[in-house]
């Protein structure tokens, strides 16, 4: 025989508290793509459920204070890369589970109980999202500040070298072509950094590529000329294999940026006396551009973070870790893919693959 408490929503939820948590957890696993451990899945939600149950106690007047469980839950979901819609959905699914348990227990939900549930769930959503958005914005601000700091720091070196070269030329010092070469190299490096920063910003904003027919031979010739000074200074042969009259449908600025960044990356990590090789393969629907370096291979476990912004590959800290990230973003903006093959003891081969539209009939 049921007691008066058992006939209430409070009694039904308290008696089936583990069932309620399990119901919610099952629905979340089915609703999100993120693989979660049990601890990650539950997080603060069981404690939040306990708050709702306590607030539903018939004599809970005044209602207990809402804690910070939902706030912490929102921050944790951000760390797990949930999106905003998924965070909101969690509280809606909890409401669904409460209704299911009430139905299975044959318990009617009164107006006051509906108000309590609405208050807790609405507050939970608001608190979780407020903390989620706050932490997300703080992280974005931190990354933006770090990004600008890297750019400012790295621009200082080539500009300082350029100013030194200009001063030598102005003072008519016997520097000869060496000062001119230093000036040109430094200005090119500064220009490349600015181009990278602008490309990174436009790609993050989702700017659509401006597609046109691009002759690969011309594009690779430009890359060879622009990277040639750096290759010569490092004692590395830059070899661009002939590509014939191959034409690719692409945004010329973005594709050049992708290839140039791969070449710069290859020159940066290849050893003096070796060669960086650029080659292309084309079929009716596929174009592949390869950049092979002589870096000696990657340390174990480093492939996964190669394309992450502001992550640098080795002890050489020049550059600000955007080159490979920009290359990937530029290629993906074309609907293509970029991969890397590690050749231990030799180097790496980076490959850009672009699918071409059907030829007009």
Strand content: 5-15%
Largest sheet: 5 strands, mixed
Q: What overall geometry do the principal axes of the alpha carbons give?
A: elongated
Q: How many DSSP-defined strands?
A: 7
Structural class: alpha+beta
User: What is the C-level CATH assignment of the largest domain?
Assistant: Alpha Beta
Our measurement of the CA-to-CA distance between the termini, rounded to an integer number of angstroms, reads 80 Å
Order of helices and strands: HHHHHHHHEHEEHEEHEE
Whole-number count of domains? 3
Instruction: Give the helix level as a range of percent.
Output: 55-70%
- What's the gyration radius in Å? 30 Å
Low-confidence stretches: 313-320
Fourth-level CATH superfamily of the largest domain: Histidine kinase-like ATPase, C-terminal domain
Q: Mean of residue pLDDT?
A: 82
CATH topology of the largest domain: Heat Shock Protein 90
Per CATH, the architecture of the largest domain is 2-Layer Sandwich
Q: Total helix count?
A: 11
Q: Enumerate the strands of the largest sheet in spatial order, edge to edge or round the barrel.
A: 2-4-5-7-6
Could you walk me through the main structural features you see in this protein, from its secondary elements to its overall organization?
The protein is built from eleven helices and seven strands. With 361 residues, the chain is of the alpha+beta class. Helix 7 runs antiparallel to helix 8 (177-204). The chain has three domains: 9-139, Globin-like, CATH 1.10.490; 144-204; 212-355, 2-Layer Sandwich (Heat Shock Protein 90). Mean pLDDT is 82; it is low at 313-320. Strand 6 (337-343) and strand 7 (347-355) form a beta hairpin. It is 57% helix and 12% strand. It has a five-stranded mixed sheet. Strands 1-3 form a two-stranded antiparallel ribbon.
